[in-house]
Design goal:
Mean pLDDT: 92
Largest sheet: 4 strands, antiparallel
Order of helices and strands: HEHHHHHHHEEEHHEHEEEHHEEHHH
Number of domains: 1
Keywords: Iron, Iron-sulfur, Metal-binding
Radius of gyration: 20 Å
Number of helices: 16
GO molecular function: iron-sulfur cluster binding; metal ion binding
Structural class: alpha+beta
Pfam families: Fer4_16 (PF13484)
Number of strands: 10
Protein name: 4Fe-4S ferredoxin-type domain-containing protein
Strand content: 5-15%
C-alpha cells in the first residue's frame, strides 16, 4: 500500500504537537469546543469513502479535471508543492530552540530585547517598520490581535497567544478565470508565497528584535484564520465564509505569526460588520456555486468566541471540497463577489449601501 501524502498535517507538525502537549500550562491549547481543521477532514478515510468519485482524492484531482488538463495540473503541482512542503516544514523546524528550552527549563526564555519592547509598549515605530517590511518584501498587509482558544483547531496547539495576521492578495485577472487551472495556479502560488512570507517575517522579528514568535503556513494551519482576521479588524466574513477586505475583496489568503507578548496596539475594530448585511441581500456566490455548497443561512458552529460572539459555518464541505480539489482551488464564488472587482469596490459598495439602507 502506498504511503498517504498529507497536505495538511505533516510529520513535523505531528512531532511538534506531541512535544508541546507535554506542557499544557506553557502553551495555548485548543478549546474543547474547537472544530477540526478543514483539510485534515478532507484527507480522512471517512471523507474519501463518502465523497471520492474515483476512490482517492489524488485520482479525483487528476481525472476530475479532464485528460487534456492533466499535463498542466502536473506542471502546477511540480512548481509549487515542493516549496509549500518545505515552507510548512520550516514553520516547525524553526521552533526547535523553543522546544529545547521547554524541555530544559519548563518555559521559553525571554530575551533582553523582548523585555525592553514590553516596557516600551506600544512600539509604534517598530509596528510601522514591521508593516513596511511585510509590504515592501512580500506585498503583505498585517493586523494584530489576541488569539481566542476557540479559534485553535481541534487537537492543535500554539506557543504564543498574540497573533500578527498576514494577508496576501491573489491576482484579479487570474482569479477571474475560475474555475480554470489558471485560477487554481494562482491559489497555489499565493499559498506558497504567503507561507514563505510568514516564515521570513518571523525570522526577521527573531533575528533583529529578539521576539519569540511562531509562523504558521496558510495551507492546513493551526487556527481558523478568517474569524481571526475579522477580530483583528481587517475585514469580515462573507456569505461563502471567506474573508472580505477593503484592499482585496475576497482575493486573498491568510496566515498568522504568533508572538508571546503584547508588543503592539490591537487593530481590533467592528467597522466591517456591515458586510454581512450586504451579503444577505447579494448572495451572488451562493447562486454561482456549481455544487450548491453555500448555505442560504449560516449555521452557528462555535458560540461565545471572545470579541466575535460566534463563528458560523457557511458551506457544506462535502460538496465544496471535491470541486476545490479537482480545480486546485475553484474560486468561482471569489470571482463573482462584488467586493473582488478591484478599483475600490469595497468603498463604492459601502457608499451605495449606506445611501440605500
Amino acid at each position: 500500500m502506498s504511503k498517504k501524502i498529507s497536505v495538511s498535517t505533516s510529520k513535523e507538525e505531528k512531532k511538534y504537537l506531541e512535544h508541546v502537549k507535554k506542557y499544557p500550562e506553557q502553551v495555548i491549547m485548543a478549546h474543547k469546543d474547537s472544530q477540526q481543521e478543514g483539510f485534515e477532514y478532507f484527507e480522512s478515510d471517512q471523507f474519501s469513502q463518502n465523497n471520492s468519485k474515483y476512490g482517492s482524492l489524488i485520482m479525483d484531482k487528476f481525472l476530475g479535471i479532464g485528460l487534456k488538463n492533466i499535463p498542466k495540473m502536473i506542471k502546477i503541482i511540480a512548481k509549487y508543492m515542493p516549496s509549500m512542503f518545505r515552507g510548512k516544514k520550516e514553520c516547525f523546524t524553526d521552533l526547535s530552540e523553543y522546544l529545547e528550552q521547554l524541555d530544559k527549563n519548563g518555559h521559553i526564555k525571554m530575551t533582553k530585547q523582548e523585555k525592553k519592547l514590553i516596557e516600551s509598549y506600544p512600539n509604534k515605530e517598530l509596528w510601522n517598520k514591521l508593516k513596511d517590511y511585510a509590504w515592501e518584501n512580500w506585498n503583505v498587509i498585517i493586523g494584530f490581535t489576541e488569539l481566542p482558544e476557540k479559534l485553535i483547531f481541534k487537537g492543535k496547539a500554539v506557543l504564543f497567544k498574540y497573533a500578527i495576521v498576514c494577508i496576501q492578495e491573489m491576482d484579479k485577472e487570474k482569479i477571474d478565470k475560475a474555475p480554470s487551472l489558471d485560477a487554481g495556479e494562482e491559489v497555489q502560488r499565493v499559498y506558497n508565497s504567503l507561507g514563505l512570507a510568514v516564515n521570513d517575517i518571523a525570522n526577521w522579528l527573531r533575528e533583529n528584535y529578539g521576539i519569540a514568535c511562531q509562523s504558521n503556513h496558510p495551507l492546513g494551519g493551526l487556527v481558523n484564520t478568517t474569524p481571526l482576521a475579522g477580530k483583528a479588524g481587517m475585514g469580515w466574513q462573507g456569505h461563502n465564509g471567506l474573508l472580505i477586505t477593503p484592499q482585496f475583496g475576497q482575493r486573498q489568503r491568510i496566515a498568522p505569526i504568533f508572538i508571546r507578548s503584547k508588543l503592539f496596539e490591537f487593530t481590533d475594530n467592528r467597522k466591517h460588520v456591515w458586510i454581512e448585511d450586504f451579503c444577505n441581500i447579494c448572495r451572488k456566490c451562493e447562486k454561482s456555486c456549481p455544487t450548491q455548497a453555500i448555505y442560504s443561512k449560516k449555521k452557528t458552529s462555535i458560540k461565545n468566541v471572545s470579541s466575535l460572539g460566534q463563528t458560523r459555518t457557511c458551506i457544506d464541505r462535502n460538496k465544496c471540497y471535491p470541486q476545490f480539489n479537482k480545480t486546485l482551488g475553484c474560486s468561482i464564488c471569489m470571482k463573482v463577489c462584488p467586493f473582488s472587482q478591484g478599483d475600490n469596490s469595497y468603498y463604492k459598495i459601502k457608499e451605495k449601501f449606506n445611501k440605500k439602507w
